[in-house]
Amino acid sequence: MSRVLIVSRTRMNKGRVCVGGHDLDRDFRSIRLLTPGGMNMPEEKPLEIGEIWELDYTDHDDPDPPHVEDVLVTGGKRVDVIPRGELAAYLAERVTPWNGSPEVLFDGTVAATPSSTLSVRLDRPDSALHDIDGENPALAWLSGISRSEMPRNPGGC
Q1: Residue 125, preceding bond cis, omega within 30 degrees?
Q2: Residue 80: beta bridge partners?
Q3: pLDDT digits over 127-140, tens only?
Q4: What are the residue boundaries of the structural domains of the chain, listed by start?
Q5: Cβ-defined contacts of 101-106 (< 8 Å, 24+)
Q6: How buried is residue 81: exposed, middle or buried, by Cβ count under 10 Å (0-12/13-18/19+)?
Q7: Beta strand residue intervals within the chain, DSSP E
């Protein structure tokens, strides 16, 4: 078992949520929590931002880039919680937020898709973007950009 801090929870389609966390027992490793079958978690799963869970998980044996952080969760229990008001400071002590413009995120591989979402080409670089409670200037810049202003990936996504 590993202690995992939940740092993101995004509603997806078909009653699923994308849940991200950091493994507190493995060098603050970034992980994305999936069901044993490799699906995003059901929306009714009680995994909330700021909670610390003891989880049994294994690395996904066939990750789908750029989601190379995928793990398959087989069980766990909530053991603690970091209050929302303290979470940003807790994370700031342990991660270095990205500082730069969106054009250079993921070594320049970020592109807009026809559905107005952002994607990263499969040749994902070694570095990743960290955002702490919306304080990241690159994400603040992105939130105000229109789809027509985003650079396109001519090779597709």
Answers
A1: no
A2: 52
A3: 344 333 434 334 33
A4: 2-85, 96-149
A5: 101/138, 101/141, 102/138, 102/141, 102/142, 102/145, 103/151, 105/129, 105/138, 106/66
A6: middle
A7: 2-11, 16-23, 29-34, 41-42, 51-59, 70-81, 110-112, 118-120
pLDDT 10s digits, 12-47: 989 999 999 999 999 999 999 999 999 999 999 899
Residue 105 phi/psi, 5-degree rounding, is: -60, 140
Residue 143 three-state SS: helix
**Strand 41-42 vs strand 16-23: parallel, antiparallel, or unpaired?**
antiparallel
- Of residues 39, 42, 56, 53, the one with CA closest to residue 9: 42
Question: What span, in angstroms and rounded, lies between the C-alpha atoms of 16 and 41?
Answer: 6
CATH number, span 2-85: 2.40.50
What are the backbone angles phi and psi of residue 14, rounded to the nearest 5°? 60, 35
